[in-house]
Amino acid sequence: MKKLILFMFSVLSFYSCEKRSGKINSDGFLLIGTIENISNNKKVYLKTQENGVLTILDSTIIINGKFEFKGNIDKPMIYGIYLDSLNDAIGVFIENKTITIEAYKDSLASSKISGSKTNDDYLDFVKQSNIIISKMNFLFPEFQKARAENNVKKLEDINNKMQAINDENTIFTLKYAKQHPDSYIGAMALQSVISIPSIHRDTIAKIYNNFSEYVKKGDFAIKTKLFLENSIKQDSIQN
Question: Which residue stretches of the chain are H helix?
Fold first, then answer.
């Protein structure tokens, strides 16, 4: 579960959105951005992260405060939009729809994104999960105090409370994945907890098998499928 918390923190620092619906674009995606107080011909880059390395997929320039990217993808992907000379980025889940971005020069990460249902689903998931995880906030001062006092009994009690919160979040995450079989974020939620020993493989497989074919094309679902296949192979070897 620590892995889930760290994952969500890293993506949150890279991602923002505003809940709205978007139009399906049968020809691929069209990303339309607007930004004020930026000079013409400033370069904008569309990047993705592969094996921890940022790779430039496309670039364009700003004309009269506007920029565009077009393309076609066979599965939802998270991309970063970077502007020359600005030490910030806009993170966005792109799918084959018309997506609009109202970018803020002084805080790209706070930009408003509309048109991607995947973005909307992600915001919904993170909001609900953060309500659970935030219950740990009041425990950290107690933990630090108990550790400074070397109070073993108190530390054990706090650890038990933290574990209970983690377990609650795990249950929520599995429930979210189960209730959102047509959402790429449902697959992301499931993939984030597959390594937790207490979750039975059959539970993971049942949720995965219920995903739509569209969702199964995404990276998170693919990783879950590989996990299940490797788990079955390990059982075969051991038996």
Answer: 2-12, 117-133, 139-148, 152-179, 184-191, 201-209, 213-216, 219-238
Q: Which residues of the chain have pLDDT under 50?
A: 1-22, 24
Res 233: pLDDT: 75
The DSSP result for 32-71, as a single string, is: EEEESS--TT-EEEEEEEETTEEEEEEEEE-BTTEEEEEE
What are the residue boundaries of the structural domains of the chain, listed by start?
Answer: 18-115, 122-238
- 52-109: pLDDT as tens digits: 788 999 999 999 999 999 999 887 788 899 998 788 888 888 888 999 999 998 888 7
Calculate Rg over the CA atoms of the chain. 21
Half-sphere exposure of 104 (CA within 13 A, CB side): 10
- Terminus-to-terminus CA distance in the chain, angstroms? 29
The CATH T-level fold of domain 18-115 is Immunoglobulin-like (2.60.40)
